[in-house]
């Protein structure tokens, strides 16, 4: 029934090894069909090499499987929280890409240090607070989504202007208007995370000028954008 | 006689260059057949490019060759000590993979800093104490195995919950329920070693929360695991 | 009309992903035909995979399109400033290559630390001063070119002896006698930027001896060059 | 006349891009035929992609071309000094491989930190003293060879036990019993240089134990070697 959606989600998942963002079965991509009230997502623990469109799992917005025989990604509950809280999201990606994960492990925001970052992310990519023991022990994956939402609300961030977060002690989540846009943002996150890591070995304090960040972000986004063929 | 075992060990050895874990002839993989009382292991100093199933050497648990014409890996005695001491081990891998070797050279445990680590290793990957001059001069490879066993016993570690160690001044050993599982763990060790190296340039002290380590380890291992298709 | 020029510029642009200098549509190469009074340049935001010679845009030296239907690179104004100010330039490259961008983000010159650098760059690769808010808000891309020209004039640098600069908070520009020479210099910049980053982790102060820099630069450049088959 | 020698030198040179040790035309490999009193070496500034056996240049031990139409490598004089001073050398490699060059730029020996190093190099890989201005200005390439020889004599090093050096402000030279052995050592140098760089970010002081260095070196070299199939 959901073949087109599942095909897109399969292709977006296969981009993760293509871009070097995953090892083994790590990582997952989903996309939502808000009219049908479903998301399609990678199955849990299945190899990218062997994955077919029939392996993709379709679940409703309460997480019940409506199509597919495999278990959905163990991170499905995190995806659902984000789709519920952020109506503009069309696709979500989770990876343990190396440099993004390093910032998550360090418990630090990925700082906005240059125009590569500013072209895609309006300000720092936030790192969530540590979960409490209670949040970890019960409904862990749901609470991972909750702490992302809490972070964006407390800092008054627009999730479409800062389409990623890193989870303390864990790894990044990225999103976008659809599954492919989310993967695109996950690739950029990894690149700016790597650049920021090396920049910090030369200069512990420097940040991008606010005016330069504004310029680069808004020449690609919003009503006055002039980058590309729009 | 041991063709199936040798074929598996050949294939597992060929995964080492596939995953970028070895240079030249470095590294080796073995697997044990506990019923037959033998292990199959890579020959010493033979190129992965040219290796065939006939080159794999089968030795008994005292290290005497029972099938094959080449010398077994010079590290065979280390493998045998581990198989004797840890009955759950089915396969063992030794590599000089870059980041794992860096932690060994630094004489430091690979610290558990995130869920990537916790998904596979329950706590730090231990670094062994330096061998004494006497241990190095006589039966060096056997003593390398002994010091791994000593480390796990002194720290009361379960070798199947922490399926790797790094040897001071040397490099990692990894293991698993069979040769392929051991290679899998060697790949993960290299990835978490690289992540930990970069994390330490940002934050010298941080560690993963114990509750988060527990959560990730036990959602993949043991009776209550829910990751994957089990 | 400008097919040969556009074909060269297409090929030079395709070298950027070949050498690993770009992600997605980032980066651009141009070449000038000074007799015809035009430059050919990459279109804005177009994928390298799909780019054909018809996508390359030809603009006059005031930036008006004379051939092509797509928008030229958003950085076209920067290229034009450099071609106007530096008559020896035949080709220009802009990338966000990782290590070069790190030095730009750190706001630091790429220091001349060895003969690899000295073979191509006579002295440090300069980092421009930050642009003012006014320079950023109006005619940003033109001002990016202006600040490169200002840097070379204030430091009395020959742009053909130091064929690159890094822009504070942004990324590198490189150039050369034609588009292919410019790409060549962009590859070298990335390599020496990476080497310099690691060198600074070992030694914060060291620099190449001036006599050694002279020797290597002038064995490859100028009347007394003896490197190669000239 | 020297077709077989030139063919070997061609193949050994082509291994440099295969192993990722060179960018563009950088680097060169030579091999000596001591009975004929000649060396074959890469031509200067020629691309590896296009190189054929006819491009390889044969020069006598005074550096005069005896076969070939191209200029020999600009580093030929360095090779000749080493062949004259060290009678055991059969092949020599020069590269600007990234991590080896970093140690050269830092003006530091590559320290022996682990068994990967000890398997091939008996002790630190020495860094030469800076050349004087006079040594640079006249017969620079010859003096580069001289300072390597001086370093080995002053430190009483056996060039076959430590088959590499790094030149202050420049890059590594490696050698071996023939051209292929020299390339092998150049690959190992790059790997141990990279490992040592990262190890020093964790631990600024640690070194390999002397007994462990002895053990690994002598299990692969000399009368009592037992590694491999010898």
TrEMBL record, chains A, B, C, D:
Cofactor or coenzyme needed: Zn(2+)
Boundaries of every Class II aldolase/adducin N-terminal domain copy: 7-197
Q: What is the lineage of its organism?
A: Bacteria, Pseudomonadati, Pseudomonadota, Gammaproteobacteria, Enterobacterales
Tell me a GO biological process for this protein. Answer: pentose catabolic process
Q: Name the SMART domains on file.
A: Aldolase_II
Keyword terms: Carbohydrate metabolism, Isomerase, Metal-binding, Zinc
Q: Which InterPro entries match?
A: Aldolase_class_II_sugar_metab (IPR050197), Aldolase_II/adducin_N (IPR001303), Aldolase_II/adducin_N_sf (IPR036409)
Q: Which GO terms describe its molecular function?
A: aldehyde-lyase activity; L-ribulose-phosphate 4-epimerase activity; metal ion binding
Write down the species.
Answer: Musicola paradisiaca (strain Ech703) (Dickeya paradisiaca)
EC main class here is isomerase
Indicate what this protein is called per its UniProt record. L-ribulose-5-phosphate 4-epimerase
Pfam families assigned: Aldolase_II
PANTHER family tied to this protein? FUCULOSE PHOSPHATE ALDOLASE, L-RIBULOSE-5-PHOSPHATE 4-EPIMERASE SGBE
Keyword Zinc annotated: yes
* The family this protein is said to belong to: Belongs to the aldolase class II family. AraD/FucA subfamily.
Q: Name one GO cellular component term.
A: cytosol
Instruction: Write the Enzyme Commission number(s) for this entry.
Output: 5.1.3.4
Q: Which domain of life is it from?
A: Bacteria
Provide the catalytic activity annotation: L-ribulose 5-phosphate = D-xylulose 5-phosphate
């Amino acid at each position: 029934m959901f073949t087109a959606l599942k095909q897109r989600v399969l292709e977006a998942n296969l981009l993760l090894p293509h871009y070097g963002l995953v090892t083994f079965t790590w990582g997952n991509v989903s996309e939502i069909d808000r009219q049908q009230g479903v998301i399609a997502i990678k199955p849990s623990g299945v190899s990218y090499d062997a994955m077919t469109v029939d392996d993709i799992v379709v679940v409703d917005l309460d997480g019940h499987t409506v199509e597919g025989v495999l278990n959905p990604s163990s991170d499905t509950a995190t995806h659902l929280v984000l789709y519920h809280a952020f109506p503009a999201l069309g696709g979500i990606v989770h990876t343990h890409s190396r440099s993004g994960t390093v910032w998550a492990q360090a418990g630090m925001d990925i700082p906005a240090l240059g125009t590569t970052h500013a072209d895609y992310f309006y300000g720092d990519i936030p790192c969530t607070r540590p979960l409490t023991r209670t949040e970890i022990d019960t409904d862990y994956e749901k609470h991972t989504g909750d702490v992302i939402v809490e972070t964006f609300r407390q800092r008054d961030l627009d999730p479409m202007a800062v389409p990623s977060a890193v989870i303390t002690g864990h790894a990044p989540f990225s999103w976008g208007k659809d599954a492919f846009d989310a993967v695109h943002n996950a690739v950029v996150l990894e690149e700016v995370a790597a650049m920021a890591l090396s920049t910090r070995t030369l200069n512990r304090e420097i940040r991008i000028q606010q005016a330069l960040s504004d310029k680069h972000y808004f020449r690609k986004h919003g009503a006055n954008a002039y980058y590309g063929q729009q």
